[in-house]
Design goal:
Elements (H helix, E strand, L loop, with lengths): L6 E7 L14 H9 L1 E11 L4 E9 L9 E8 L2 E7 L8 E9 L8 E3 L2
Antiparallel strand pairs: 1-2, 2-3, 3-4, 4-5, 5-6, 6-7
């Protein structure tokens, strides 16, 4: 989601992550598998319209090394859709990515946000 006061939060999850056999006592392997299929961070964002890049500045994140970084996200708008897409050079086995967000009409008393379609 993106808020009008320049904050964002993203959670990405592999929908095929296996459930823990014992939810109260997962094994170390099950815990590692769960975190391998999950990515999340929140923080400020800014938009560089001239270069069509949005920058995310994670203030909290699943990975401690992500906090305090500057994450460029090449973007394009198409109506109520926001799409990030780029080539990937630092993640083995991944060549590119594309993520599309859809603007949600706010309910009374809330701010405008974007969410996954």
């Amino acid at each position: 989601m993106y808020t009008a006061d320049a904050h964002m939060c993203a959670e990405l999850m592999n929908p095929d992550r296996p459930a823990w056999k014992d939810p109260q006592n997962p094994s170390d392997a099950e815990k590692a598998s769960a975190i391998d299929g999950f990515h999340a961070y929140c923080g400020r964002y800014e938009i560089d319209e001239a270069n069509r890049v949005m920058y995310h500045y994670p203030e909290i994140a699943w990975s401690p090394n992500y906090v305090g970084t500057k994450q460029p996200r090449p973007y394009k708008f198409n109506g109520d859709l926001l799409t990030f897409s780029d080539k990937v050079t630092n993640e083995p086995g991944v060549e590119s990515y594309s993520i599309t967000w859809r603007k949600v009409v706010p309910s009374a008393g809330s701010s405008s946000n974007l969410s996954l379609p």
